[in-house]
Amino acid sequence: MVSREEDLVLSNLPASRAQQQLALIVALLIVLPALLISATGMQHVKLAAVDALVPLYGMAMFVTDSITAALLFTQFSIAGSRALLVISCGYVWTALVVIPWLLSFPGVFAPSGLLGGNSSEITVWLYALWHAGFPIFVIGYALLKNAESTQRLRRFSAIPAILSSIGITAAVISAATYFLVAYQTHLPSFMLDRLNFTVLWYYAASIIALLTALAIVLLWLRWKSLLDLWLMVVMLVFMTEVLISSFPVSARFSLGWYVGRACSLLSGSLILFVLLYEITMIYARLIGAVRGQSRERGARLITGDAVAATIAHEIKQPLSAIITRAETGLRWLDRPTPEFDRAKGQFAEIAADGRRAVEVMDGIRANFKNDTRLRTWLDVNALIEETLTLVQAELQQNRIFVRTESNGELPQVIGDRTQLQQVLLNLITNAIEAMAAKEGLRTLGVRSDVNENGGVAVSIADTGRGIKPQEIEQIFNPLFTTKPDGMGMGLFICRSIVESHGGNLLVFPNSPQGVVFQMVLHAGTPASA
């Protein structure tokens, strides 16, 4: 998980192994064909002059380098790194120097260029400034990047720093252009004629190649980030452009010159592609994080609803019993001859129901906290008998016949008595409610047995309306209910309790009608203790 906004910038992102392999493949795909052309000596082959290519090339370089500079300035405004400011200025340099280069190039806007004088000479000098300047900016970036922790610019100075950097870069290019136009007659000549270069150019190309090589070495020695990796690829392609278009023979509109322009376009676009890709990936991660937060918020709300519904559901039973017993006790006292002993018995039952409500609350808290309560050895048959006693009045009131089948050899289980009794009470109460509105024979089957794995299986079967096949998949989901006044928490709680004991709660249709819930518990081992 990203912890700081500075970690989102390209100069701080580490390069993965896959990205390193991709960078190597891209570099080889660009450099190897150029080396093949150079090895076969084809780079000096003269090709037709395509005049429209130069302005298209210049405009493409201006647009791609301008966008790259803008994105890098954005990264600088986040990280405040001087190194990022320097490399951003490098792309501003390459974008802006293209303008006078295009204006001076013979045949683009005018036969002899728009800057006057010997425009071919001015074009080559601007090209030399262009290609010598960019490696110097990369060298500056490589030298500053390791010291950025102590040389970060303050956030509030980002915009003035960007504007002043652009202004200084533009001023230097303007001054250089003015100097070249004003003093071109005093400058050494790079051109023999309109197409061919003098020996001086080879010295200039060698210096540019050496500066580029130095930038690559410094980047390699100080390589830390994804930006460092791709800048090395950029500089490698950049050096390929210089070498193939200059050696052994340099001439405009030769195969080497055209290949050099292609390398120039690729080297100018690589960082842009990487920036756009990384921004897209960060945007995708941001969307994923927002969606995750939304899901988490929804889950939290559902959990809150579930907790509230669980408390209401579990407290409803003892509270109803307390009210009933209190009303009964009052009736005993309101008689002409109060029956204190019977009323006292009801009040004792009220106290017992109150304690059971407290135990239920503790059980709910334990379930949601996933705590392990104090568990003891339990006789499941005795627990079933005790639970049936608790609902005896409801069974009689609804004329439900109870059929029990108990395995006398049932092993004991380790569990929470209150929680497991709560499960049985919920399942039996559900069975009673399912059969209450049904005409005909109403039978509650309670069966305990040893399953094939040696565990204890307790089945609660009713002859009610049953469950639809599509409801079985959701029957244990929180807040899902088939009853008009149900909360949808009873079976969810039952399953949670059984699973917390290492067991399982199953449901399947009863034959010929109704439904069977089966609680399976491990025998003899405290599964979740």
Fill in the keyword field for this structure.
529 residues, alpha+beta, 14 helices, 7 strands, five-stranded mixed beta sheet
Report on this structure:
The protein is 63% helix and 7% strand. By secondary structure, it is an alpha+beta fold. The strands form 2 sheets. The chain has a 5-stranded mixed beta sheet. Strands 1-3 form a two-stranded antiparallel sheet. Helix 2 (53-79) packs antiparallel against helix 3 (82-104), helix 4 (119-145) runs parallel beside helix 6 (199-221) and helix 6 (199-221) runs antiparallel to helix 7 (226-246). The longest helix has 80 residues, at 255-334. Residues 525-529 have low confidence and may be disordered.
Fold topology:
Blueprint: H1 17-39, H2 53-79, H3 82-104, H4 119-145, H5 158-182, H6 199-221, H7 226-246, H8 255-334, H9 340-369, E1 376-378, H10 380-390, H11 392-397, E2 401-405, E3 413-415, H12 417-436, E4 443-450, E5 456-461, H13 469-472, H14 490-500, E6 504-509, E7 515-521
Parallel strand pairs: 2-4
Antiparallel strand pairs: 1-3, 4-5, 5-7, 6-7
The helix/strand order is HHHHHHHHHEHHEEHEEHHEE
Distance between the termini: 35 Å
Which segments are poorly predicted (pLDDT under 50) over 5 or more consecutive residues?
525-529
**Structural class, from secondary structure content?**
alpha+beta
By DSSP, the count of extended strands is: 7
Q: What is the subunit organization of this protein?
A: single chain
In terms of DSSP E residues, the strand content is 5-15%
> How many helix segments?
14
Mean pLDDT: 82
Shape: rod-shaped
User: Into which percent range does the helicity of residues fall?
Assistant: 55-70%
Largest sheet: 5 strands, mixed
Query: In which order are the strands of the major sheet placed?
Result: 2-4-5-7-6
Rg from alpha-carbon coordinates: 42 Å
